[in-house]
Design goal:
The complex is a heterodimer of chains A (432) and B (59). Chain A is of the alpha+beta class and 432 residues long. Chain A has helices at 62-73, 81-94, 101-133, 139-158, 172-177, 179-190, 197-212, 279-286, 290-314, 320-363, 366-385, 423-428; strands at 3-9, 12-17, 21-25, 28-32, 38-40, 47-53, 56-57, 60-61, 137-138, 223-229, 238-248, 251-256, 262-263, 270-276, 398-403, 407-412. In chain A, a hairpin with a 6-residue loop joins strand 5 (38-40) and strand 6. Chain B has helices at 13-20, 22-55; one strand spanning 9-10. The chains are: A alpha+beta (432), B mainly alpha (59). Chain A binds chain B through residues 120, 124, 127-128, 131, 136-140, 142, 190-193, and chain B through 5-13, 16-17, 19-24. Strand 9 (137-138) of chain A pairs antiparallel with strand 1 (9-10) of chain B, so a sheet runs across the interface.
Chain lengths: 432, 59
């Protein structure tokens, strides 16, 4: 895991990241504290890139992909930062080195299998709960349960839009290409279960959606990518946050994390955005731990609901219709009051904790921004260090400042080699 | 269990798995068997020590 942050104001954007990388295995996990997560996206323009969560894409390290792109980009620049993001996406789609045929097939089969396994296990879990809850269950009920779960999943996919970079000929093209493999996956996982032809078709359709649409939280091994800096025409910094899943044929499954993509302008004058493990930054900014805050908000809703129940059970109105009307009216009032109270708490945090920090950030010189970013990452590392949890955040902290005039400047950067032993590296750096 | 296939009644998840997902059922049983064998092999004292070792910090 990772702790990363970007802090920006009108002058500059700062990127900071820890160096921990976790490799899970059957006996637990191994953590190294030497990973690089921040890179320059261009050697000539003020643009950087940061990686979190999965350090690989289609089994290729992001560092390699980024450096291949940087080489291809050369001294070309774009008017807007978003153009760099779009160009980077196109590079990944078009570059055959990034995802070989063999890796694409493995990616397809692994993900399709996981999806079908998930369906089967959900069906079994629902059936098990039914049996545990009340009574024995008939074959027909089991088949109906499976049918309703398969349909619900299909309906869920319908709510999501296809990725705009995916050609219209997909997913039918790759579904046809891998039709045998899909049949095998479904047959081997559903074994003797009597799946109707229609159900099988729905599962295949969902598999197609799995690779062409993006449902947040559906892909635990996604990679987070943050592209930050300035386009040639831009005078204020901005950042584009992307969540990348995988590539099959010309279908790159990814989504933009719009909550974390932002640009500095005359209204938004400063911002702090944490990525991956962000609870300490949240606590610093909002004055309260996020899970504690969630608990408070949920408890407020529960408490108001409980009070509503107590009031309703104690009201004695003879007329049934009148009772129903009053009950519904009261419920609406209670929900509104609870939400208003939660909003008041949010507003209090905003005006007493968040805004004062943002107001200082607006005027903070760029070197101070770097100190702040490093301190916030350090705080997350320290919290991990003194807890009984694994130190999934730690190691040296890399910090870079990107400003319009000075470009990409490293404030802190770990090197795996000594610069005086490797003059060739520095001499060749700008040689394309 | 009632024998008519379409109207078969299941009173445990094991029965469902055995009928519809026999390979999954076999795997599950195999896993359970392995676990039981380990417990049998370690015995009460062995299991106690294993659990203790999981709780004691080691260098």
């Amino acid at each position: 895991m990772t702790a990363e942050i970007t802090i920006m104001n009108k002058e500059a954007i700062v990127l900071a990241a820890d160096s921990a990388v976790t490799f899970p295995n059957y006996t637990g996990s191994k953590i190294f504290q030497t990973a690089n997560k921040i890179f320059t996206l261009s050697k000539y323009s003020p643009v950087g890139i940061m990686v979190y969560n999965n350090p690989n894409f289609m089994s290729v390290p992001w560092e390699t992909i980024i450096k291949l792109y940087r080489k291809k980009l050369g001294n070309k620049n774009f008017p807007k930062l978003r153009d760099y993001a779009n160009d980077f996406i196109k590079f990944i789609i078009k570059n055959k080195k990034v995802a070989s045929e063999h890796v694409q097939e493995a990616y397809f089969i692994n993900n399709a299998s996981d999806y079908v396994l998930g369906l089967r296990d959900t069906i079994l879990k629902v059936v098990e709960n039914e049996i545990k809850a009340k009574k024995p269950i008939s074959s027909k009920q089991i088949i109906d349960t499976a049918d309703s779960i398969i349909k619900s999943m299909n309906d869920l996919w319908k709510k999501f839009e296809r990725n705009k970079f995916i050609p219209k000929s997909q997913p039918s093209k790759f579904l046809e290409k891998y039709s045998k493999q899909i049949e095998n996956v479904i047959d081997s996982i559903f074994e003797r279960f009597p799946l109707a032809k229609k159900q099988k078709e729905l599962i295949k359709k969902s598999i197609g959606d799995l690779f062409t649409k993006f449902i947040p939280g559906f892909y635990p091994d996604y990679s987070g990518i943050v592209i930050a800096g300035f386009g040639e025409e831009e005078i204020f910094p901005s950042q584009v946050s992307l969540l990348m899943v995988g590539l099959i044929e010309d279908c790159l499954n990814f989504s933009e994390d719009s909550r974390r993509s932002s640009s500095i302008n005359y209204e938004l004058r400063a911002s702090i955005t944490p990525f991956a493990q962000n609870e300490m930054v949240y606590t610093f900014m909002e004055g309260v731990n996020p899970s504690y805050n969630n608990m408070i908000e949920n408890d407020i809703r529960k408490l108001y609901n409980k009070l509503y129940g107590i009031v309703i059970s104690n009201i004695k109105i003879q007329n049934k219709k009148e009772t129903k009307d009053s009950s519904e009216k009261l419920k609406k009032i209670v929900i509104k009051e609870a939400e208003e109270y939660i909003d008041n708490l949010k507003a209090y945090r905003r005006s007493n904790f968040v805004d004062p920090i943002i107001n200082v950030l607006v005027a903070l010189p760029k070197n101070e921004l770097a100190i702040m970013a490093e301190t916030l990452i350090n705080l997350t590392c320290f919290k991990r260090k003194i807890s009984m949890e694994e130190e999934t955040v730690g190691g040296p902290i890399d910090v870079a400042i990107i400003s319009k005039g000075d470009g990409f400047i490293w404030i802190k950067r770990k090197h795996y080699f000594k610069s005086d032993l490797n003059p060739g590296f520095f001499n060749n750096y700008f040689r394309e | 269990m009632v024998s008519n296939k379409n109207k078969k009644i299941y009173s445990s998840i094991d029965e469902v798995e055995k009928d519809y997902f026999p390979k999954l059922f076999d795997k599950k049983k195999e896993k359970e068997k392995k676990q039981n064998n380990e417990e049998e092999r370690l015995g009460f004292v062995g299991l106690f020590l294993k659990n203790m070792n999981n709780k004691i910090s080691q260098t």
